[in-house]
Each structure stands twice: as structure tokens, then as C-alpha cells.
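At your convenience, could you comment on the folded chain following this short note?
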Amino acid sequence: MAISLNHSLFLRSLERSNNGVLGRSSRGSKSWVRVSRVVCADVDLSPPRYIPAAPILLPDGPWKQIPGGVTAAKGFKAAGIYGGLRAVGEKPDLALVACDVDAVAAGTFTTNIVAAAPVIYCKRLLENSSTARAVLINAGQANAATGDAGYQDTIDCANALAELLDLRSDRVLIESTGVIGQRIKKEALLKALPKLIGSLSSTVEGADSAAIAITTTDLVSKSIAIEAEVGGATIRVGGMAKGSGMIHPNMATMLGVITTDALVASEVWREMVRISVNRSFNQITVDGDTSTNDTIIALASGVSGSKKISSLSNHESHQLQACLDAVMQGLAKSVAWDGEGATCLIEVSVTGANDETKAAKIARSVASSSLVKAAVYGRDPNWGRIACAAGYAGVEFNPNELQILLGNIQLMNKGQPLPFDRTAASEYLRQAGQTHGTVEIHISIGEGEGSSKAWGCDLSYDYVKINAEYTT
């Protein structure tokens, strides 16, 4: 039976109950079919994916998209297995990304004061160490608001993995996702570690299995990799992320792992990661809720053979920064595209600001507006809500310079409302919703050189249904 991603509640219930798997239809990335666990002519179920892959939403640039996700860069392996941590079903729930060498490590974390145990653990490790060798991720339990016992669970899991890999314990980082207030099912996790390590692979399948294992209410897995020239050498950057609900720009707003084989100094890498997060994961929103577990870990193996990047101001660093931005923005857009109950992605572009920071703040304000999101879902071209959200962003601008476009339909110019084809504007929104496509909102506030983008999704009835029933 062919169905649309608009039926989000049904699909998420299917994913949680595991009564079937979701696979790509032969018609392309924006249509999906429900299939049973039998051989199906147009879906490859060997091995089962459980959920399909997200559409790739990379920005244009001097790079080539390649397969592999976190394993595309040299020196990295990954795996994802079922370890018995999920409450229902046997979808993979335990992932591992490992590096053959000590990788330069950077991390960004939630600003939520009620930070999860693995967030606290990773922050402490990265304050004292510039390298890491492995990232262990579990789904099912967030291990947040679990006190000293939850923190000890994190330590025990890291130590156990380090011992099996013959590593120092401070070379293992931990990420967790799931229900807040629940400790990791430590016994099941520890028992599964030998199988997880034995499943490590540098293949695309290894990356795909890890990307699936970290998902919760996600309808799709998110995995991206690119290849590009940096300083005359070929380097690769890849990554995976999870997120669908509890998404709001206030750090990384989800879980993710980024890998590269570029050779880069620790202090430079950490600043690059911070900049890219601000241009990507900090510019997405689904529901206004910043999670307790938000974490991005970025590892650089340095084994590409490229020249070491030791400064932020040279040409090679600008090239690598652009690659890192592209991968993180691609993943961030996939997260917003997959927002709980969403029928479309919303992309807000702001130009004419005095600087990038001010443009980003306005874009984020519009993408976060519940009224804008609800209007998009209702296919209502109510541009007044866009103007309102831009105005309360906390950025000074001349309202007589404000311009707003919905797609290529101009709604306001120089602060004045314009006559427009309301039927055509509504049809533009309807088409985006029917195809799970993108609604583009363009805003200009003046003549400045600052520009930025933010991404969100529409707000549907299903969002409330999904989260009203999350633990029941």
C-alpha cells in the first residue's frame, strides 16, 4: 500500500512497534512504501534497513557527494547492532564509531542545565584531552536526570569498551538518546559490546547501520559524506546525526558524529567545529525544546596525507571550513525535514544585515515561530507572521527596508504590503506539503553584507499526538 510521509503519526507508530519496515519506493526519495518482512520486488531487505535514508540536502559547492557517512574518511570504522536497549522491537540501538589512530577531537554540547550524564562525562574528558579513539552511542535511554548512578553507568560503559579495545578510558566518548529519567540498560549494553566491536567495518554498511542505531522517533536515518580538494590534497568529511523532536537551536539540538581524514591542529579544529555548528545545527528548530543530551562529536584522523592546517586564516582552512559547513548543514536540514509530524522543510534566508550573527538571529526567529509554522501547515500565506517574527528577533533594522518573498512570490517590498496571487501562494505551500519538499522564505532587511539561513518544519496536528503518547 503506497503512503505519504504526511501520515507521520502512522509511520512513527509503525517504527516504534516494529511491525514492518519502511523502504524506498521505486519512484524516488520523496515517496515511501510500507513493506512486510518478505522479499519485495522494489525494496532491498538484505540486510533490513528498518527505516529508509533521508534525502541528501547538501548545499552546492566544490565537493563531490560520496557514499560512506562516518566511514568515508580514512581511518574510521563503524557499526550498529541491536543490543536489547530499546523498549520495543529489534531495530539496532547501539552504535560505535572508532578510529584507527588517536583522532583530534572536538565537541559541542547542550546548554540545558539538566545535562545528561554522557554530556557531563564528554565535556570533562575533552577539557583534559585533545584526542579520542571511539564514540559509543545508545538509543532507548537518555541517561539524563539520573543522578550519580547514571553518571557511574556512563563511566562503566566507557571503561568496558576501552578495555575491550585496549585503549585508555579517556579515549572513549559516550552519547545517549531516549527517554529522560531512565538509566542506560547497562547489563544489556555491556553484554553486547563484543558483538558490536566484532561488527566494526569501514564499509558503507557499517556507516548505515550506525546511523540507524542512533535513531529514536526519526522516520529516516541521516548520513552524509563528501570528497574535496584541500590544499591540493583529497580529503573526506562525513557524518551522521539523529533528531526529529526536542529540536531547537541552542547548541547542536540532537546527536551527531562528524569524521574527517584532514590533518588539523586541535585548537583550529575545535574552532572550526564551533563555527560550523553555529551555521548548521544551531540554525534548526522543530518544536522549541532544547534537549538534555544534545551532542556533536567531531573527529579528525589526519591520515589523508594532506598538509597540516595550523591556522584559521589560510586558504586551506577556509576550504576545510566550507566542507565542514556543508556536511553539518546537510545533516541539519535532514533533521528539520524529518521533524515530528512535519510535512515539509522550511528554509528561511536572510540578507542585508550588518553581519552574519544578526542575520542568523532573524532567520532563527522566523523558523522558530509557531505561528509561521502553523500557517505553512495550513497552506496559508500569512506573511504578517513572518514580518512579526523578524521584528521580535532582537535585531535593530529599518522596517521600511523589509522585503519578504515566499518562494518567488513577493509579498512585501520596502516595508509596504504588495498585492499578490493568494491562490498561487497557497498552492506553492500545498505542493511542498504534498511532496515533503521545501518552503523557501526570503527576507531582506537592508543593504548590509550579513546573510544567514535557518531551517525548520511546519507544525501539524500529528506533532501533538506523537508527543502526547511518547512514553505510553
The longest strand covers residues 94-109. The radius of gyration is 22 Å.
